[in-house]
Specification:
Blueprint (H helix, E strand, L loop, with lengths): L1 H8 L3 E6 L6 E6 L6 H18 L11 H10 L5 H14 L3 H6 L2 H8 L6 H16 L8 H5 L6 H12 L8 H11 L8 H14 L5 H14 L18 H4 L17 E10 L5 E5 L10 E2 L11 H13 L2 E14 L4 E13 L9 E5 L11 H10 L1
Parallel strand pairs: 3-7
Antiparallel strand pairs: 1-2, 4-5, 4-8, 6-7
Helix pairs in contact: 2-12, 3-4, 3-9, 9-12, 10-11, 10-12
């Protein structure tokens, strides 16, 4: 399959691409071919030399501990470096070893992860630590197969751990590295396609030096993060521009090709601030699945088409904790954006009318004083409700 893709991509011909400000497609002539061994070796050497002098000062770059590198790689999925750094330090202070993480309650792990989002990462990391403890006697596997048997570890994370911690010569191609490779080789297929993904990884293997695999992978990532950026790449400062086929043919601002995203759907959700006679508030814990699984919340849920907000809230509370409430005035209206959708969360003050709470559609529930909210892990949207209440 790779050879078929290569024959289609690497040929003398034209690349169709839209130029900014021009409505019609313009044909850009280029002549390219796969790199020979000398070019590939030169690129590897140039990136290693550049990385030695320009690498970003990041805390996980100062260790070869596979557990620390694993934690950093999981946190860096879908989260900016600047956001990750303080979480990384706090998380490792609280769970300094894989055994400490495995023995910790999941609620503590989710609380440490609070506000970083994509909580499946934390749940998988915790489950994987338990598997390391039980199946691998507390030792992180040093093989690709062993690592990929752990929850939440895919090809990229396994390769990153093996190359950085153990100097195993495996490519680790993240979004930044994909962009660099797409320009180096003039990959004129959308990078999100499965066949293109495999092809890009094969191209990364061509560039992989025999030694310092971890430094090379991190150098490729840093190059994409700092110079070979998505918009306005800083080509004049790039150490491999003389061998970059996109730069040579003036295609650096056309590549990589990306698939267009459709419109982001918008949903309305409800949340009830239910108080009892003592002024305590009812909170519930989500089931351990989905985007926010395991986090605490105010009871409520998604509005159905044609349904009123208060009707929705009563129905969702009944289904979640099996109690009846009287819905009162609005408490807050929160707008929040997730990766693939956005929501407006409508919070209402409610009074408990009838029934004893039970965990029907949730994992657990609690009556708590407002001063106790900080003991629980909430989503950002629910934290905004708390802030409004205070």
């Amino acid at each position: 399959m790779v050879n078929k893709v290569a024959s289609r991509i690497y040929q003398q011909g034209t690349l169709k691409a839209k130029w900014k400000g021009q409505p019609a497609q313009r044909h850009l002539p280029y002549k390219t071919e796969t790199m020979n061994k000398k070019e590939s070796k030169d690129i590897g050497r140039m990136i290693l030399s550049w990385y030695a002098h320009h690498q970003r000062d990041l805390p996980w770059r100062k260790t070869r501990d596979p557990y620390h590198i694993w934690v950093s790689e999981v946190m860096l999925q879908q989260t900016q470096v600047e956001t990750v750094i303080p979480y990384y330090h706090r998380f490792l202070n609280q769970f300094p070893t894989v055994v400490a993480l495995a023995e910790a309650p999941l609620d503590d792990v989710l609380k440490a992860w609070e506000n970083m989002g994509y909580y499946a990462r934390a749940r998988n990391l915790h489950a994987a630590a338990k598997r390391v403890l039980n199946r691998f006697k507390g030792k992180i596997p040093q093989t690709r197969e062993g690592l990929m048997s752990l929850p939440g570890i895919g090809p990229y994370t396994a390769s990153a751990i093996l190359s950085i911690a153990f100097d195993n010569p495996l490519p680790a191609v993240d979004a930044n590295a994909r962009r660099v490779i797409a320009r180096l080789f003039v990959v004129d297929e959308p990078l999100g396609r499965g066949v293109t993904t495999g092809f890009v990884w094969d191209l990364a293997k061509q560039l992989m030096p025999r030694e310092r695999a971890g430094d090379f992978n991190q150098g490729l990532m840093d190059l994409g993060a700092t110079l070979c950026t998505f918009q306005k790449p800083k080509c004049t400062r790039c150490p491999v521009r003389t061998l970059c086929k996109a730069y040579r043919n003036g295609l650096q601002e056309v590549l990589p090709i990306t698939k267009k995203r459709g419109p982001i759907p918008h949903h309305h959700w409800t949340a009830g601030i239910i108080t009892d006679q003592d002024g305590r508030v009812l909170i519930t814990q989500r089931l351990n699945k989905g985007l926010l699984g395991g986090l605490w919340k105010f009871p409520g849920g998604r509005q159905l088409p044609g349904e009123g907000l208060k009707t929705c809230l009563k129905r969702e509370i009944q289904a979640e904790v099996d109690i009846a409430v009287r819905v009162g005035k609005g408490a807050a209206q929160i707008k929040h954006v997730y990766t693939h959708f956005r929501i407006t969360l409508h919070a209402f003050h409610c009074v408990h009318r009838d029934g004893t709470p039970s965990a029907l559609g949730c994992r657990d529930w609690r009556w708590t004083a407002t001063s106790g909210f900080d003991d629980f892990a909430f989503s950002k949207a629910d934290r905004k409700i708390i802030q409004a209440l205070r």
